[in-house]
Amino acid sequence: MSEPIRAGLAACAPPLPADEAAQTLLRATPEQARAQVDALDDDGLRALGEQVRALPLAERETLANELAGKLDAPQLQKLETAFGRDAISEAVERRGGPQLREAYAALPRDDGAVARFVDGLKQGLALSAEELPVDHAAPGKTRDISAQVVNPDGGEINDATWTVDDRGRPIHAEGTLRTVFSDLDRGDAETAAQRTAADRGVDGDQGGHLLGHRFVTDQGLKNLFPQNGNFNMGAYKTLENEWAAWIDKGMDVRVSIDLSPREADRPDRVRISYEVLDPADGHRVYDQRVSFDNRAGQRYDRVDAGEMDGLIAAS
Q1: Closest CA to 165 of 232, 291, 265, 268
Q2: pTM for this prediction
Q3: Where in this chain does the record put each Type VII secretion system protein EssD-like domain (predicted)?
Q4: pLDDT class of 109 with cuts at 50, 70, 90
């Protein structure tokens, strides 16, 4: 009976107010939200996207989380145009139940030539996502793998280097972060790599990025480890938000991350040090060292915007 009722609601749903679509969806009941999203046309999605991008990061995440608790998978996919696929997929992971996560993962997608190439490669080699070749070192050795990610808009470059063992498991990462790719979605190959990393862990783990996707984009298994989901979406994300805030203020952030123990599928500890540098002359504005257990309940008290301004001025 639910489908005819929802179809009737969609047919008579009033259009979302162009200037407050985000807040209207936040206040709506699940039935109202479904009907309103069904009624959105391209212009409405563009207007919603402008409002979403204008929200502070915390409010944007709250809205995405709320909608993941109200909408069905196809409607959430529709909202990727406004929120970005990355934001919606994270909200589904946080707030969606098993049925929603499964339905969302099964949605048909067209990710362009690169994804089609990867899919063709997997089919040609008869490999599953988990069996795709990975970067690894020679037996008993470690290997450093470097990458540069360039922002096509401003030309800023994020440099990163990962150290992996002979099974392709990351044990260390470091990088200098100068820009944030806030609206960049992750590809299917990256999502598959996250599942592979999570499967090396225990119940409740996610495929966590050593260096956040917003800083280095799709890098595959060398940038992923089995990470407790609460830790990943809580303290670790708070720390990443702090790095992004420093970058937004024109600073460079130099990061070093160590996982331990080294010869383990699932690390028990994550040790991080970072320093904030003024790119004008390279002097240090701030530095921090922190160590986390890879389990739920971790906390990180971030530097707020006012403190950042004071530290920059005093340096």
Answers
A1: 265
A2: 0.62
A3: 158-274
A4: low
